[in-house]
Design a protein that fits this description.
- Chain B: Belongs to the binding-protein-dependent transport system permease family.
- Chain B: Keywords: Cell membrane, Membrane, Transmembrane, Transmembrane helix, Transport.
- Chain B: It is a multi-pass membrane protein.
- The complex is a heterodimer of chains A (311) and B (302).
- Chain A has 311 residues and is mostly helical.
- Helices cover 68% and strands 1% of the residues of chain A.
- Chain A contains 13 helices and 2 strands, in the order αααββαααααααααα.
- In chain A, strands 1-2 form a two-stranded antiparallel ribbon.
- In chain A, strand 1 and strand 2 form a beta hairpin.
- In chain A, helix 2 crosses helix 13 and helix 3 packs parallel to helix 7.
- Chain A is globular.
- The mean pLDDT of chain A is 85.
- Chain B has 302 residues and is mainly α.
- Chain B is 74% helix and 0% strand.
- Chain B is built from 15 helices and no strands.
- In chain B, helix 7 packs across helix 9.
- Chain B is globular.
- The two termini of chain B are 39 Å apart.
- The N terminus of chain B is likely disordered.
- The chains are: A mainly alpha (311), B mainly alpha (302).
């Protein structure tokens, strides 16, 4: 109302803005904003289940949290996942996307991927469209600890004894990380392929012409050129490392076991809320999780910021 | 090797590119190793799925007893029948199709309405509302778990598909608004201005002119939302508790079959149920793989 006059067109304009915003905004506030704000409030209460009565207990939930071994186990697991899962996924994905886009050398004077790259991209991406819950059940069968589990049968062919992929407490978390990598790689192959496709081919061709071998082409030319995309992938996988709920809940023994060896914060948040009905305590864990995720995102953006290469 | 012959022939036609790094590196060895690596990853990707499918035809003696890698002797479909009856996969599938269709429709409708107004109209509070939507991108869904349960319960929507749809739409809005606002902002002003000159109302300009122009972005985000909502597991298990099993969604149903009674000694049926959940996705993926890949990666690429 900059001009102070509510002429019919101005009224119509505001009416239009209002009518378009009201439904999404109300829905979003009721089902997203308000639950999140209430969660912060709940974190300072002893709320149990849907019982309407609760008391404010100050920081009690948080002090309890700091003494909770399971909480710290979960935080440690996020640390391990955060170090291993993005790194392994990105390295494999970078390698494959390089092969699929530039690894074939030059064809008719153009850089090209190895033979069959279209096929590989389709196949590698497929795990990404499967629901994590389905992937969990799938691998439960594959990773069965007895000698008839599919992976153990395959290893049996080369004389390796059955491995307790999910029941060995020292191995279970790594097995779950492996399954997460299995599902993630194809996505980043496609993402990096798109990144490589947006770089003018002449740059790669000029490098090859100057005698750059494949290793130089990969480490000194390709990676710097798509560094932005790699960084985005890193942030995205890092945030995924703070999730892992569905995979651990479905795949691990005893939901986070054996003996909490694979548990993660989202799983504990869910368990505290819907197994023990400790809504207050669960929300305090939620606050801790948000704090961890935002810290990670802020740190990553600070550390990996690097001059973008213009082309 | 195919690559080498192609390289050579192109080299003779195009002398400028003859001195290739690839040649010095020995494309034979490198090409062989790279194909081996790609082949191994292909097997790693495909084998679990093929194995699941084949195992659904096996008998228990074939699944155990040290020869679980062998092909099934006969293609028995009876495990599929048992799985269909026991696991309610069909029911879960229908439930999921209905829920995801409705919630994606409303996500796209409401999301593009909000994004359009926020991207192309200046008014007091615009920036604030935009930031409110976009800030949702950085909040993991786990924070609001207990309180969301309470909110939905208080509205009487717990254990209903309506509740699930409303929550799906709300949780999908941050990303949808963020992405589509950028898309609408990039559309040229001239067309919209011409429409207004011609006397088209704001609403009509939106539905008849701006929406069709934004089609590529709308398709990408629709695919993104369909897959995201189809694969959602956390929200269904919170919002559709165990006593509402007939309303369950596919991810819940599948996760449950591995733990529920009746499957303990019936692995073939479990594999059949898994196959039933995977095969439709596989078919849709093969048909729309290009759109699906670009839709999903568009979400991260921005």
């Amino acid at each position: 109302m900059r001009h102070g006059k509510l002429t019919p067109p101005v009224l119509r304009r505001y009416g239009f803005i209002f009518s378009f915003l009201i439904a999404p905004l109300v829905l979003y506030i009721v089902f997203f904003v308000s639950p999140n704000l209430q969660a912060i409030q709940l974190a300072f209460t002893n709320s149990r289940g849907i019982s309407p009565t609760f008391e404010y207990v100050g920081f009690e939930n948080f002090t309890k949290l700091f003494d909770d071994e399971v909480f710290w186990a979960a935080v440690r697991h996020h640390g391990v996942i955060l170090l291993a899962m993005p790194l392994v996924s990105l390295i494999i994905a970078l390698f494959f996307s390089f092969l699929l886009n530039l690894g074939g050398g030059q064809r008719n004077g153009r850089m090209a991927g190895v033979w069959g790259s279209g096929f590989y991209k389709v196949v590698f991406f497929f795990p990404q469209v499967l629901a994590v819950a389905i992937v969990g059940v799938l691998f439960q069968a594959i990773l069965r600890p007895d000698k008839d589990g599919i992976l153990n049968s395959a290893l049996g062919l080369i004389g390796i004894d059955p491995v307790g992929w999910l029941i060995d407490p020292n191995l279970a978390l790594w097995t779950i990380i492996g399954v997460a990598v299995w599902q993630a790689v194809g996505f980043y192959v496609v993402l990096f392929s798109a990144g490589m496709a947006s770089v003018p081919k002449e740059i790669f061709e000029a490098a090859a012409l100057d005698g750059a071998g494949r290793f130089i082409l990969f480490f000194r030319v390709t990676i710097p050129l798509i560094w932005n995309t790699v960084q985005v992938g890193w942030v995205y996988l890092g945030i995924a490392a703070f999730d892992c709920f569905a995979l651990v809940q479905v795949l691990s023994v005893d939901r986070g076991g054996p003996d909490n060896a694979t548990t993660v914060l989202p799983l504990e948040i869910w368990r505290q809320a819907f197994t023990y009905y400790k809504f207050g305590y669960s929300s305090a864990m939620g606050v801790a999780l948000v704090f961890l995720v935002l810290t990670f995102a802020a740190l990553t953006l600070r550390v990996t910021r690097r001059e973008r290469i213009e082309y | 090797m195919a690559t080498r012959t192609v390289t050579r022939s192109s080299g003779t036609r195009n002398p400028g590119t003859r001195r290739l790094g690839t040649r010095r590196q020995g494309p034979g060895v490198f090409g062989g190793l790279s194909h081996l690596a790609l082949f191994i990853w292909t097997i790693l990707t495909v084998a679990p799925i093929v194995y699941t499918f084949l195992s659904s035809f096996k008998t228990n003696t074939e699944l155990f007893g040290g020869k679980s890698l062998a092909l099934p002797a006969n293609f028995h479909w009876d495990a599929w029948g048992r799985a269909w009856e026991k696991s309610n996969i069909g029911q879960y599938m229908i439930n999921t199709v209905i829920v995801v269709a409705i919630s994606t429709f409303f996500t796209m409708l409401l999301g593009s309405m909000a994004a359009y107004v926020l991207a192309r109209y200046r008014f007091a509070g615009n920036r604030l509302i935009y930031l409110l939507f976009v800030s949702g991108l950085s909040i993991p869904p786990f924070l609001a778990l207990s309180s969301l349960y309470k909110v939905v319960q208080n509205l009487g929507l717990l254990g209903t598909h309506v509740g699930v749809v409303l929550v799906y739409v709300a949780f999908s809005l941050p990303f949808t608004v963020f992405f589509l606002a950028a898309f609408f902002k990039a559309l040229p002003d001239t067309v919209a201005e011409a429409a207004v000159m011609d006397g088209a109302s704001h609403t009509r300009t939106f539905f008849q002119i701006m929406m069709p122009m934004a089609k590529p972005g709308l398709i990408s985000i629709t695919i993104f939302n369909v897959i995201g909502q189809w694969n959602q597991y956390l929200l269904p298990i919170v919002l559709l508790p165990g006593d509402k099993q007939d309303l369950w969604l596919i991810t819940q149903g599948i996760a449950n079959i591995s733990t529920s009674a009746g499957y303990e000694a019936d692995w073939a049926a479990l594999f059949a149920a898994l196959s039933m959940a995977i095969i439709p996705i596989l078919i849709v993926y093969v048909i729309f793989q290009r759109q699906i890949q670009s839709g999903l990666t568009a979400g991260v690429g921005k």
